[in-house]
């Protein structure tokens, strides 16, 4: 278990073989995975986001923090067009690998940009195996062997394999909350997304499960780009490379996590981080 | 909360501590009221409980009266009443089998037609329609259930039956006439007419309750599916499998209604007590025989037979309804706490 | 995506759109009979509606014209009787379920009230026959009233219960806090607050009872002559429609449609009002 460390990347060597991700220097040269430009989001007439612009770096973890109601979840949902599912509208541009997400079919977009929700939501009428395989089945993969391989791989990635490998046929609801959330993560990983969005994934869980999930995020970073919304600042500090601070629907500040938590530029950021409000 | 004793008078002007009390209440505050409320409360509570007891016992009362009222035919025919086919008031021979057959077949056919349509309606209203469209259309579907049976019957006689006789039945006979279901002359009246009109009457019930069941399922599940890259339909399929038992309950309620439908069926079913494989032939249902013959029932045995038919109908609908309510209740309850 | 994937994706999209169309088609098919019946009744029935229709008695067989005054009055008396017996029972039971209803007895009553609402009206008619017609030895308006009362009770009970439950707890607490006994709080504060909703629920139950035919066929029977006596058979709008629908006279059939139109217009109107009132209640709370 890693200790609470404000700068998890500060010990990184030029090429970190264990995690397989490129060094900061090479990283800086990679194009941003997702780019948001002047995003406004509305629920009917109410404006939830105001002119938000930021970049999500590839194979990095971006944490979005801020007090409740500041639009963090709304922004996250704009990234995979789930915002419109709830009846919202969006202005501005969001790009995935340079392509506007409004041009990509929503169904395809959501396969490439996966989401883990605050409350674990395994499909109640499906077994653990079927839950993980669900996304694959949508896309037409029915080969039993292939599915079994992917299910095992993803459950291992989600650090759940050992706990459920003998009960894959049991209902997805029969496991604990923390295990359900890891199941949901495995399910999301099964369709091989490029980006994984996490909306306060550990807020409904106990500390042990939370720790497991944070470990997971750190390991997933190597292969996926992650954006995590959290109201837990320590979690953001532990887990992320970049942090964005939202307040009242606006992006106040974004930067390297270490810097944000030690020497933020904006007054509001500092106030929030030091607990003066929120 | 015990009221103040007579030692401390209650100041009406400041009662309620600042505006929470409806003005009407202030008029009833009595100065120095004693704890007499025990009696009043006791009386009121038990008086209302008595009425509730009345409602509860109504069902048992009804069952008992009908069971007692059919004593004659129960003792004469026993279980054969349900198994024989002669319905002959002249010779006082009563066998309800064709009636049961007519009721069940017309109801099942109605379900066969109405169920897929109802689920389609429920899916559209719950999952696919925008809110501004859903409200008025839900209301329209519910209005269908409010049309009295007699009006359905009237429409059945003067619109549906002629259409069947002149259009649908000849068409069916010419294309599928080799099947035993479509043999016989095309009267218009008959099993097919009854099934069709029942389907229209039963559809709003199944659709409305199924829609309620679907809407009770929390959005979290839809988001899980959509977030995974599912199409709306794929997401709906998953929701449907969660709603399975609720929809079953709705279907049973619809079946219950179909089984008990009287006027519309009586006016179009042809009123002939016989069993036939053909949908074109006239038939008879339990409710219809009571509607047609009860007022004219001459002998005690005749009346007893009809009461027994009513009793069978009673038991049948109670079982269907109780089963259905238990199922629907448990499904929507499961999600109420989230 | 590979070509294979693209094709499969297209297939999924097609299925999705097909389902959308199918369910929309189902909705349109479902609503069509409503439109058909309503418009047909309107067209057929409106020609029969004139002043005579409402105030005259039926003419002898063969003569055209006449009206259904006795049937209208008959329906009025029947639902009056039904309300007389059914409303007090339903409202009181509903109050019990709402105010004191967190025990197994209440749960059973609730359940049985729901089951009661599913019993076919003809069966209720048979019961009314057994308990009223047989002892009296003849058909009567009273028997019809009893049948309608039994039919009204479940609806009135559940509506009353639901409307009372909607009244915020703070009203009860306020009443109790200033020393009003619980029963008075319920009667003088809660009930008046819920009255609007309860009344509309009652009106709906009455409208539905007005549309019943089957139970009246052998309780109130029917009466071609003017009669308001409770212990005699009495005519009603619905039985009127039924009798006239079987007749070979075109004039009678037209009148049947007229009566049918009056009936569904009444029921639709009350359904709309009920919907508006309950919608606004839900919006309030």
Please summarize what this structure is.
The complex is a heterotrimer of chains A (278), B (338) and C (285). Chain A contains 11 helices and 10 strands. Chain A has 278 residues and is α/β, with parallel strands linked by helices.
Total count of helical runs of at least 4 residues of chain B: 12
**Beta content of chain B:** under 5%
The total of beta strands of chain B comes to: 2
Q: Please tally the helical runs of chain C, counting DSSP H or I stretches of 4 or more residues.
A: 10
Q: What oligomeric state do the depicted chains represent?
A: heterotrimer
Task: List SSEs of chain B in N-to-C order.
Answer: HHHEEHHHHHHHHH
What number is the mean pLDDT of chain B?
A: 84
Structural class of chain B, by secondary structure, is mainly alpha
Task: Summarize model confidence as the mean pLDDT of chain C.
Answer: 87
> How is the main sheet of chain C built?
none
Shape of chain C: flat
For the sheet with most strands of chain B, the description reads: 2 strands, antiparallel
Low-confidence stretches of chain C: none
Strand arrangement in the largest pleated sheet of chain B = 1-2
Q: Could you say which structural class the secondary elements and strand pairing of chain C correspond to? A: mainly alpha
- pLDDT < 50 runs, ≥5 residues of chain B: 1-21
Radius of gyration of chain B: 27 Å
Features:
heterotrimer, A: 278 residues, 23% strand, disordered N terminus, C: 285 residues, mainly alpha, 77% helix
How would you characterize the overall build of this protein?
The complex is a heterotrimer of chains A (278), B (338) and C (285). With 278 residues, chain A is α/β, with parallel strands linked by helices. In chain A, 35% of the residues lie in helices and 23% in strands. Chain A has a six-stranded mixed sheet, with helices on both faces. A four-stranded antiparallel sheet of chain A has the order 2-1-4-5, with helices on one face. In chain A, helix 4 (128-138) packs across helix 5 (144-157) and helix 4 packs parallel to helix 7. The longest helix of chain A is centred in the middle third of the chain and has 14 residues, at 144-157. Chain B has 338 residues and is mainly alpha-helical. In chain B, strands 1-2 form a two-stranded antiparallel ribbon. Chain C has helices spanning 3-46, 51-55, 69-100, 104-117, 121-136, 141-166, 169-177, 182-210, 237-245, 250-284. The chains are: A alpha/beta (278), B mainly alpha (338), C mainly alpha (285). Chains A and B meet through helix 3, helix 4 and helix 7 of A and helix 8 and helix 9 of B.
